[in-house]
Structure formats: structure tokens, C-alpha cells
Automatic annotation (TrEMBL):
Name of the protein: Insulinase family protein
Family listed: Belongs to the peptidase M16 family.
Domain Peptidase M16 N-terminal: 12-159
Cofactor: Zn(2+)
Domain Peptidase M16 C-terminal: residue ranges: 166-339
Pfam families the UniProt entry points to: Peptidase_M16, Peptidase_M16_C
Source organism per UniProt: Geomonas propionica
Top-level lineage group: Bacteria
Amino acid sequence: MIKKTTLNNGIRVITERIPYASSVSIGIWVANGSRHERRESNGVAHFIEHLLFKGTDRRSSLDIAREIDSVGGVLNAFTSREYVCYYAKVLDKFLPRAVDLLTDIFLHSTFDSDEIEKERRVVLQEINMMEDTPDDLIHDLFHQHFWKGHPLGMSILGDAESVTGLSREAIIAYKDQMYRADDIIVTAAGNVTHEKLTALLEEFLQGVVPGHGRTESVPPVYERRIELVEKDLEQIHVCLGLKGVQQSHPQRYDAFIMNAILGGSMSSRLFQEVREKSGLAYSVYSYIASHADAGSLVVYAGASPENAKELLEIMLREIGRFKNEPVPADQLEAAREQLKGNLLLSLESSDNRMSRLAKNEIYFGTPLPLSEIMEGFDGVTSESILQLANEILDNSALTLVMLGRIGTPSFANSDINV
């Protein structure tokens, strides 16, 4: 059963009780991410995520690590373009201890100057590591160009210049501004009692300032861009993307199924055509990146320079098929069952249930019943996919980013159409 309570200061608490579980996953979510930063302070949300583990008034960073290890638990965090999450997973009997630990780092981190400088070096190494990993870098470059000129295009990590320029005062000011109660959601799934957790959180989180931290976001504008980035690599890495769907789009289930058919598994069209039939790439896949007001459908693969043109042609052809050919009934049904099965299997994990509660609250303001999601998948038809494809697979919004030893490209920009 899912229960929701709003604390006196506006923080939302949402739980899903799984009485047969022996663990609880709990997360504190802040509905502000890299898209809510200013360009000159890009990377500050991610930097704060790191710094909250570096010590509080009551605990050193070693104390934090030892405390979660001593109960066999997990403590971690991540930053995205639209939210940050700090989470723990522990045996149910240790939930009060996990709440004390999570809320302590969330509210009482000291932001010690020496720790900031040490962690700044860590973040700069993380940026360097991504730049040395082309199959990670290409996706960051893609989003920078696809959302060029818009906050969604800023790197989650920031860059060396912006991270180096973040002062202690700027970091604390950003946290004070953005970590406001109306933007904070606490979700928990597992063997948890809603009333007991709410009482704990009312005590621990009462000091959070009410209100919202961010201003309203402006939706991005889709434009066509071709970007060829020279880098001395053995492969050419290719990211090709078009307009996708926002999180609440009425045809999001059509988009999910279209993506599954295109490049979402080993039986997908791209995997079969690019890897199995042609042997052009080891890794090839597609994904949907959906946000509150926009989205993208992205295809990725890496191939040797002499095969890059053929790889690109296959990508464009397979995407274009959705605009011109109804999906065969057997492929549609297979993709539908694949996604429904993936969802049901994911619900065996309290981590996934906890995350699902938060994301539904952020994007829909309410839990989405499993039955409604299944009905959404069941309502997808070949005709509805064809209609959506002709709406979103628009060449005027196409972005291609290629990374590697490209030299003189063997294609013209006018050839890049689906």
C-alpha cells in the first residue's frame, strides 16, 4: 500500500509497505538538478552531492562510511538534470539509524574548506575520466549540442572552469536556495511503517525552510545540428537523436515500445542489423531521455572509421522505417511483453520501488497505479506508433554528433535524414 503525507513545512513523504521484505530503501529527493543552475556555476548540484558525504557537526566522513558499513547497508547519491537523490538501503530494524544518518548529512554538512578543495580535485578527475572514456563523452557532447543554448544542454558534472570557480560561499548559497521544503520528497519502500517514518522525519527535517528554490523552467527549442568532433581514437562514436517525448506525454507508451523495437534489446532492429548481420559494432543501442517539458530519442554505436558511413546509413534507415511502415503485429507484441516484464521484474527491488515513487511524484504529482501503466502499454497499436513517429521524427530537429578520427566526412549534411 502506498501512503503520502505532507509535513508541516511542505516536505512530502511517500511510502510503499512491502511486509514480506526484510529491508527498506529510503531516498531524500530534491527536485532541482543541473538544468536549474546558472551557466557560470554549472556542476554545483553535483559538487554538493559529493560534499554532503564529507562530514557533519556530529560525524566525520570516516564516521559516515563506518556507520553504514557497520549495519551492512548502502549509502549513496546521484545527480541528474532535474533532481538529486541521497539514498540508503538497510535492514528494516536499522531504518531509524539510516534516517538519522541521511538527515544529518542532508542538513548538517559543514562544507569544510579543506574538504571542499580535496573533493574539487576528485570531481575534476571525474570530469577527466569521462573525457578519457569516449563512449561516455559522446553522450555528454550529444546533449550539449541537442539542447544547445538551453540549461538542459549543460553537463551534469560541469566543466573544469566552472567547477574550479565554485567558491565555498557560492556552494552554500546554492544549497540554501535550492534545498527548500516544497522541492523535497522523501520516499521509502520495503518493510516500513508510514506513520513511524513520518514521525521520525517530522522531527529530523523540521528545520528545512518552506517554499520553492527554483524559478520556472523554459522549454527548449528543437533545432537541426551536425557536429563532427575530432579526437584521436580507434573508433568513431556516433550519437544520432531526434525529438522525443516529455515525461507526461500522452503517447509515452508508444515511444517506449518504439524505442524497444529500435534498439532496446538484443532482438531489436539495430542490434540485429548493425551487430548480428553486418558486424559493424560491438555496442549499439537506443534510449529515450525524457524531461518535464521535452525529450529525445537517441541512437548510439561505435565503429571503425571505414565503417562509420555504413553504420550511419543503417541508423537513419531503421529510424525512418517507423515513419513509413506500420510495426508488424509480432514485433509490437514482443516489445510490449518485454517492457511489461521488465517493469514487473524491477518491482522485486525495493530500490526501484523507492525511485518509482519519487519520479511519479516529481512528474505526475501522484502514484501511477500498475494497472494504469499496463493499460498504457496494451493500448499501443501499430497505427499509434506510426502517428507518433511522424510527429516526433522530424529532420528539422535531428542532431548528429560524431567523435573520433573523422577527417573529411564521406557524406554531406543533406544526406542526414530519416
